[in-house]
Every structure is written in structure tokens, then in C-alpha cells.
Amino acid sequence: MTDNKIYFKFDGKKYGGNKGDTIASALLRNNVKLVGRSFKYHRPRGIYTCGIEEPNALVQIINEHNEPNVRATVKKIYEGMVVKSQNRWPSLKRDFGSVNNLLSPIFSAGFYYKTFMGPKGFWKNLYEPLIRRTAGLGKPPREFKSKSTHLHHNVDILIVGGGLSGLLAAKKLAGTNKDVLLIERENELGGILKNSNKVKSINDQEALEWLEKTERLLKNSANIKILKNTTVTTYNYSNHLTAIEDRLVGIEPDNKKPELILHKIRTENTILANGHIERFLSFRNNDLPGVMLAASFEKYVQRYGVVPDNNPVIFTNNSSTFSLLKLLIDRNCMPKAYVDVRDVKKIERETLDLLEAHNIPFYPKSEVEGCDGNNEIKKISLRTKKNKIIKIKASMLCVSGGINPDIHLFTQSKGLVKWDEKILTFKPEKSFQKTITLGSVSGNFIFKKIIDEVSQKLNFIDGANDLDLKIEVNGSEEFNIKEIWETKNNKKSLWSKSFIDLQNDVTTKDLTQAIKEGFDRIEHLKRFTTNSMGTDQGKISSINALGIVSKLLKKSVSEVGTTTYRPPYNPVSFSAIAGRSTYEFYDPERKTPIHPWHLKHNAVFEDVGQWKRPWYYKKFENETMNEAVQRESKQVRESAGILDGSTLGKIEIKGKDALEFVNMMYTNSFTKMSPMSAKYALMLGEDGMVKDDGIVCKINDNHFITTTTSGGAANVLSHMEEFAQTEWPNLNVYLNSITEQFATFNISGPKSRIILSRVFNNIDFSNHKFPYMTFNTFDYLNYKVRILRASFTGEKGYEIYVPPKYALTLWERIFYYSRDVDLVPYGTETMHLLRAEKGYIIVGQETDGTVTPLDLNLNWMIGKKKKDFIGKRSLTRSDIIKGDRKQLVGLIPLDKSYGIEEGQHVIEDKNIPSQIDKPIKMLGHVTSSYFSPTLNHSIAMALIKGGNRKIGSQIYVSTSNMNVIPVEVVKPNFLDPENKRLLS
Amino acid sequence: MTRTFSGDGIYIAQRDFQQILLRGKGDGRFAETVNGEISLLPPKDNLRMISNENFLFAKQSFDQWSLICLKNKDDEELSKIINTMNSNDELLASDCSYGQVYFEFSGDKMKDYLNKLTHFDFRSKKFPPLTIAQTLIARIDCTIYNLEDKYLITCNKSYEDYFKKRLQDTIDL
Amino acid sequence: MLLIKCPYCGERDQSEFTNGGEAHVTRPKNPELETDRGWAEYVFIRSNPKGIYYERWVHSHGCKKWFNAVRNTSTDEILLSYKIGETPPPIKKFQNRLKSPSGEPDVGSGNFAVKKP
């Protein structure tokens, strides 16, 4: 490259900008004024502001992230950046949708609500697709590629804003024992000192010289941390704020480094020094490219060295435009005219002197009636104090309608605001949290008073420094403003519009119409007209709307009130919110000690809670899930199978009152149970509904180990802890989760005993020595294993508990000893099938929080002699003992070749009418359904009304293709009801 | 076995320790039983941690203590200690030696690094040396032992792969 | 994100806690003697006021201990937390900082953000 320019493309055309340029400043440098089309009417729009408040200049960046709705006034350019305008078709200059502008009578306030009401079906098929094509903003990226990160801060004081007030606050705190975080939105500190020439000197130093020295001082203060390019977007309760940092300012994203960092800040005190936003004014065609806010014009000149126009017209109602006037004159750019709404007597001396000295056309007590031009301003029309219309040829109009303290964050913090008649705006009145406002955000527009304000408000902080400073300003110190919201205009054609919300294309006429239609409460009016509901949230215009409405309603602005300011202050990218919790880190993953073996043996995994569990194992490449499950199930029943059950929750319970506690937690009775035996147990909530199930192992009356479902482990422990801690703190009982301390293998099948006898050859596994539902701990090699005779398949089975360190070796050893026995590893799907054949329930599949043990016919699990347990009383509530509750039954299709679908409705009637005009009577639903390879037909379980009474009868199950399958209702136990296999 | 991660100002080493989780009142009999086994009295103040060359002993809440064996014992010896402790029926001692993983964090940027993964306030006025804290790091439950110039952080073993991937990812980004 | 004080671990981020509903709802001593209605009062019925509320929290991602807290449900401020077994402070001790005739807070919400000069 031969020059220092940075080249980028806008709508296919190449432009050069300077380092540090925003898209907007670079476009203005190249004299590009038309940058987009508006939301509803597709009107040409230009660059209105120079910062975060921009309503118009939204563009799409074409790159890896394809970011839509980027503010051209904020985003910095990088070499090779590709920028496109939005909302135009086929091109920006000739836009087809701008006919909407001529159809505008139908697009008035509330048009969505009124226009697209009927006929039926038109919304979905016609209106919505049409509106989506023509209205709206940029296109969202198709894929989520950015890697954003989060960063947490815990500080004593957060300062929002590194302008003059923020810097003074930081200076006051430098070197104290407070941890301070200073956040600045721009890439440089300084705020107003950088944006304008308003401050002449501080302590007899030039403003920028003082800024440089102060920044150096702050950087050398160990207690102060500064974040730039960072915007605070949210102010939550408990002084918790979030901010977005752009890490790639002026750099192309590369997906290896984060583009955005979401800062989450917890602070003791928050200092809001986030300044003010200039507001606009409504007049005819106040949206035409070439209209720009006065302070923004100044900022372009001061910060970026771009003069957007050499001879603009200045239109103001307040004293703040003095600095723009001075700036232009200093640069020998004479304004075409200075139009001030105020009477000449009210206008400050300094302004009058300048105007007179440089002979600038001056129109006091006058206003801009409107402006004209096709894609940008050509002529500006003024109404002078004598009600005469004068036309001035000019290409730019700088507008100032007053200054609003940026109270967005303050109100998010639940602070109270108050209308100030002197400065004609809302300003903070009373903090709700530990929030301090400083400078213009507190409504203090007078620089000399800022030092006193900072000193006074921060004096409560121990060791705060004294600020011995003197500020000199250019122009008048006082702020003076005259109320005006909209100028009187001469409507010429349909094209003539006076806007109140530029981004959402809301006109002042829409406000009038909404009030006429009865939407006179400001929150209603906002929603009906969509005023201030764009991505800019009406930053330059929402107060103006209140002003106009107050006039229409003949009320004061305080009576009208303001709408609620909601977070975020500024649009936040979803990628920043998601942070790293995407793709591989979407949810933390838990793996069992056997995981590597599962991987090696082509397991397909299922998520159970956060656990990765083998769902089924692919024996060969093309084996389907169904094939694998049928194969695995058959093999378990014919020889033996092994399941990795390490994910089961395990809880160790101990204490003098452990027995009493366990008796309260489960429905079963454990009192007479002999030591070293186990019981299948049910846990209920106080409402009597099944909460969890598991096996309770009793070591002795003071010591138990229980298992829980894999997904329910944390909940069960917390449920137990809740009662132990809050209801019965006097019970001597302690609970520890030992889920992770043991890997668990379930071996079941006719040959399971042979396998275990080979692996643990010193243990007698005979029925006599090791009966069903007993357990023991054994020394094995150099460690201990606990073996429990239990089964979830209905086959003879054993559960082995082993420390995770030795688990994989033992697992492989078991396979080594089973070479000739045909041991099959099986996954959760086969487990579900096998237990369904036996009618064993799965909590969360057969139950859904509305199912009692009685509904499941598990009455035998309820300790009848127990006086009390959690949920017992609920089991005798009138609604629970009703006979026609849904009860668990088995279903077998009459035609055994049919399969039943899980989740289908169970109905009494054979015929489903072709035209369904009233609900079909539903008996219940299918909870589980499988094809049993052992029985060679489908089996299903269902919860149906009065199911117990229907055993033996014929009912119907719906199918997904609007058919029904006739089924027979049976007891939910399809295989070996005598439990011969289990107990053999 | 030991794997280390390192980046700018952050050094992480994985360690193998054994650990016992103790529950009980912490009163005379409890302390006696524990002291009899490991010659160390359980700390009395909540969140306090004491240590000698063999053990880290921390009070996690009013009725729970974590005991980390810094020098590996053989399994038999450890299970003997646990069994003897458990013979006091007002005390529950659970072995969690192999159900936990241990990471030692050091380096001058370790707090900034960790704050990319957790909201926890590491400032010494909120988290003084020789205390412990249980909190969320990378969205999983962890315990942090503040050893002044380094932190020992433990989590459940099932999260080991996930946690290590997050640690590496945070270094990379 | 609220900052909640666990009586055992100190102030922590809300993400470490789980809310456990109304506090000081005692389980009947003899459930079998309760009428259906009496039992339902214990299991299902909660006071759910707008304003000062006693509720239980558990430090689920910390020490896993339950404790009680006083929260203002209209502003979400947690005013106090105390251990299980400790006597709850009288409700009069807490002043609702947000008062207005219509029930909406006079501070910081919509139309009510505005105070007449």
C-alpha cells in the first residue's frame, strides 16, 4: 500500500478512510450522505449522529460473523471491510419499497393491528411473508461462529463513563484502598474534552493536555482499572452491571479470538458519569440525509477530523450550539445561517458577538419549517419571526433540540427521575441503590459546578483525594433553552413527513392519531405507535415525544410521565450473552470411568442429565438402533449382559437416627429389615406423588446406602437435606453423596452367576449364600468391592460397586472371564426394553409428578404399619383414593404384528371421525412401548383412567397417521410373572 | 498422570490426592476420634483451613469437614482410618479419594484467569488465605482451598474432561 | 443477579442459590390427625404477599445448607438472611421503601418514575 488509508467497501464501492474512522466518519470523509433506507416507508436516510444514539445509519457487515444492524457511527473500519446498506431493493438509490411512502395513509399508527386483521389465513400466508420482506432491518447470520467470552469483576466502585466527570471521580479515588473500575464506551478517554471545544482549559492547561496527564496518573494507580471500547448495557439489582467490550476495534474478526467480552460487574457503589445525549426536533422532512445533530457534527470535526459540510445551517433552541458556531468560524467554515428559536434577548452575549463579528445570517425567534431534496437536502425553508418563509440553499442542517441526561442506566437501577422545568428534561432525583450520578447525567450542565459536585458526592469515601482544580470554558457558563418540540410546517405532499421516531418511521401525526383513538397513556401510546421501540430506543427522540404528547393532552410533561427504560441500554449480541456456553460447552458433560471403553466399542451416547450414557452399541457399521437393541436384549435374556450404571446416584446416610430418617424419606419400612440386605424403595413428595425410586441398602440401623435415579441424584440429596436441616435438625443423621466414589456395573442374565464366580472366585454366589436383595463388601485384589444381588431386567443379576480408579480394569477383567459366555454390553435403550417386559417403572417415564404409588399398583411398597413418612397423609386425600384415577396397565396389540407408538392417546372409541369438531374422549396415554424380541410382539405400558378395572378388555390406541390400533389391557408384567428367572 | 496447563501468568497442575468427607457435630467425641486417627484436630471456625505436611483440613460448614491427604496412603490404610472414624456413630466419614480431581492454580494472573470462569470474589478481603470456598467454576460445583500463593481447586471426577477442556479453552482465547 | 448472603459462606451471587418457597411452614406433628383441608394448607397453600416475605433458600452450589431470608417481593431486595432455627425478625422491623396508593412502586417503574415537581 502506498498511503496510510484503510480501504473498505460500501455497497460494492471502494472507499478509503483513516485509521480510527468509524464507517460513518469514513463515509462522510468521502462525502457519502445516503447510507440506508427506513424501516417502514423506505425513505432515504443518512448519518444523523456520531455515536451510540444513531437511529438511521444501520448497516450490515459482511464477514465471518455477518453482523446485522451495526451502527455505522460506532463500528470502526478495518482493511478490506465489506459493508452493505440495509432495507433496500434492488439498490439504495432506486428502492422499490419506497412506494410504501406513498401508501403511507395505510401505514399509520397501529397499522399492523388494524390492516391485517382478515380474512382468516391471510396473515400466515400473505401478510406476514410480505411484511417480513419489506419491513425489518438487516439479515441475521446463518451460523453462530463468534467466540465471545465472559469476565467477572468484583470491585468497590464502578465508574461508568470516562468523560470529564468520570475522570474527576477516578482522580479523587486514585491511590485509595478502593478497587475502582472505570468503563469508557469510546476507544479513548475524555468525553466532552475530545468531542468539543467547550472546555478551554483546566488548571491553565489545555483540556487535552490535562486529559493526557490525568490518564497517565490513573494508569499508574494500582487501584484503578480502565476498560475502553466497553458499553455498560444493564444495571441490575444488588449493584450488578453488565458491559460489552468490543475486542476487535478496527480489526477483522478471525474466530480464534473473542470478538466480544461480556463483563459482569459486582460493585459496592456505582458512579454514573455517562453523560448526556442531544435531542433532535421535528419538522417537515427532518429525516432527510443532511440533517445531523449539532454536537455530532462537532464530534466529527474534533475526534475524526472530518468536516461533514463546509457551510451548514445551524438550527437551535438552546445555548449549547455556541461551541459549534465557534468551531466552524475558527475553521473558516461560515455557516449559511444561524436559526434560533429564542428571542434575541434570551440569547447569550457570546453567540451574538460571534454572529455579528463574522456577519453570519442570523434568524432569532425563527424556526426551520422543513427541508427539501431527493436523496439529500438541497433547500432549507425557514419561518422567520414575522411568519415569513425564506428558502436557503444548503446541503446540511445541524439541529439541537436540547440536552437529555442519559438517565437510561439510572432508571434501570430503579432510581427516581424528575422533570426539570429549567433545563426541560428528566434528571435523576433519588437513587434506589448505592448509585451516584455525576456531571451532565445528573442534570448538571455547568462545567464549573462539576468539581464541587464530584467533591461533595464522593467525600464519604475514606481517603479520597482533594480536587484542587479550575475550569475555564468557551462561551457562556449558563445553560439556556426554550421549549419547542415540533415546528409549524406547510404540508406539501404525501412525501412531506415530520418524524418523531426515525428508526421505526413514526411521525408526529401518528402520535396525534393515537391520542384521538384513545391511547392517551404513554405506555399504551408507545406500543400502539411503536414510538421509541427501535434498537436505538428513541435515544434522541423519546423525550420529544413526551413533549408533543403533553401539548396534545394539555398536561405537563411530568403528568404524562416517561415510559420504562429497560435493559439493555444498547443492543447486545446473542454471542456475547452465550459466551462459551455453546457447542462443546453447551452444558457441562459428565463421563463415567468406563467412558473410554464405550468409545472404543462404538457406543452411541444418550444424554441423561449431564451424563453421557451408552444408548446402544453398534456391533457393525450399519447396524441400526433397533437392530442393536433387539440383539442386546435377546442376548441378555439368553446369556448375560453388562450395563455401566455408574451414573446412578448414591447417598451414604449415617447417624444414631439414620433408621428413623430413612423410614421417613421412603414409603417402605426398614425397621425389621436385616442388616446387609436391600430393598427397592419409593420416595414421594409431600403431595403423595412419586418423586424417585432406588435401592436402599442397610448396613445396620445407623448406616445406610441408597441409590437414586441418574437424573434425580442431586434433587434427591437436596430433598433429604432439606428435611434433615429444616424439619428435623435434632435428628442425628448425616448425608454424603458418594455417587462419584463408586463405579457401578449391572450384570444380569442366566449366566451372570457363572461370570461372577469366575471373576471373584473366592465368593460363593449360590442362591443360598447370596440370596436376592442382599449385599456384601469383599476384598478383591488390593481394593474393596461391594456386590449387591439385584436386578432391573427380571433376570438373575448383580450390581458391582468399585472405586473408579479400578473400575476400567475390573470391567475389562469381567469381559476377559466371559470370553465363552457371550456377555453383551448393553445401553440404556435395552435396559428400558428389558425392564418394560417386566413392567418395572421408570420415574419420569411412567410418572410425571401426578402419579401416586397406588396409581402404579405399588401398594406393596408402602409400609402399612408406619405411622408417618413423607407424603403418607396425601395418599388418603379424597382425590387420591378415587377409583377412576389413571392407573398403570399393560397393552398388547390384538394383531401382534402392529407396533404401538410411545406417547399416543389411549381411547375407548374405535372410530376417529374424519372431521373432529369436539374433543375425543381420552383415557390416557402410552408411557412406554417396545417390540419384545423374547416375546416376539409389541408390548406397551399406559396410564389410563380406571385402568385396573379394564384389565382384560379391549380398547384402542391412536397412531400418528390418524388410525387406531385395537389393544388388549393386561397386567403390566409381560414376562415371567412368577419371577423364576429373577430368583433362580 | 500429572497434566499441566500454562498460559500467560497462569500455571495449572493436576494433582492426585486422597480425600475424606466428614460430617458430624465437631464436638469433643468427634474431634477425639479424628485426632486419634490423624493427629490433627478439626478446625473450629467455619471456612477455616489448617494444614501440616500430611493433611489439609478444612471446615466447609457447621457440620462438614474436608480432609485431604497430601501424601498418598495405600488404600488399605485409608480404609482403615475411615472405618475407625465410622465406628463413632455420630460421625460419617465418606471416602471420596477417587471421585474427585485436584488442580493447583498459581501465577500472577490466576485471579483474572479464574474470573473468566467464575463470578467468585477472589479479593483477599473477601477470600482470605487459609480459608476455603465452595462455588461454581465453569458452571460446575467446585471447592477452592486458598493457600495464599496458590489455589487448590477440586471438582467431581466425572467432570474432569469437561473441566480440563474449559481450562485449556480459557487459556487459548 | 441478586447478591445473597449465605449465613455460613457470606455474600454470593444468586446463581449459587435455589429458592425453597415460603419459610416457617411447619410440618404437622401428627399428619394422620389432619383433615384433608388442614393437610392441603400445609402442602399447597402459601401466603405469596406483595411486600415483605419470609422464604427459604438453599446454597445449592456452595455449602448446600438451607437458611431463611426476608425478601421484599415488590423490589426483590433481600433484606436479611438468618439460620434455620433462629427466630424470624418481626415484619414491622422492615420498611417497604416503595409505597404508592395503586400498589406500584413510586420509584423506577414506568409512569410512576415521575414525581410531580
Note down, in words, how this protein is organized.
The complex is a heterotrimer of chains A (984), B (173) and C (117). Chain A is of the alpha+beta class and 984 residues long. Helix content of chain A is 22%, strand content 27%. In chain A, strands 8, 9, 12, 13, 14, 15 and 28 form a seven-stranded mixed β-sheet that branches. Chain A has a six-stranded mixed β-sheet with strand order 41-42-43-40-34-44, with helices on both faces. A six-stranded antiparallel barrel of chain A has the order 45-48-47-46-49-50. In chain A, a hairpin with a 4-residue loop joins strand 30 and strand 31 (506-507). In chain A, helix 5 (164-173) runs parallel beside helix 12 (447-458), helix 13 packs across helix 15 and helix 19 (625-638) crosses helix 24 (828-838). The longest helix of chain A has 15 residues, at 713-727. Chain B has 173 residues and is an alpha+beta fold. In chain B, strand 5 and strand 6 (64-69) form a beta hairpin. The longest helix of chain B is centred in the last third of the chain and has 13 residues, at 160-172. The model of chain B has no long low-confidence stretch (mean pLDDT 93). With 117 residues, chain C is mainly β. Helix content of chain C is 7%, strand content 31%. Chain C contains one helix and seven strands. Chain C has one helix at residues 36-43; strands spanning 3-6, 10-13, 18-22, 52-58, 66-72, 77-83, 114-115. Classes of the chains: A alpha+beta (984), B alpha+beta (173), C mainly beta (117). Chains in contact: A-B, A-C, B-C. Chains A and B meet through strand 8, strand 35 and strand 39 of A and helix 2, strand 7 and helix 4 of B.
In summary, what is this structure?
The complex is a heterotrimer of chains A (984), B (173) and C (117). Chain B has 173 residues and is of the alpha+beta class.
